Predict the structure.
Amino acid sequence: MVPVLDRRLSLPSFSRPVNWLGRSGRFYALSAEPLDSFSLRPGELYLIARGALVLWVGSSADVVDDPQSRARFRLAIATADRVFHVEAGEDDVERMTIVWDLEGAAPVSGLHAA
């Protein structure tokens, strides 16, 4: 497990959070990651998108354990133009809820997280 401090230090310094609105109405401050050097870190959630279209949301465990998620991830990474890191706790139910919520998310124009 990566301590929270180390995880935040490993995020790119240029990453300014961008708000996305989940299908539930919840706002998420997502941190952009460079697509050309992107790699899944264990225990972290990611959103992969092309423009405003969410292509895949999940973690490295999803790619390893779920063949359907792995296929969607491969297609997403081949067509994506952006990747975001998603802050999430360790609770599995919370993480699954966030994945479900973000699969129907859209970026919020005009709002930027502080």
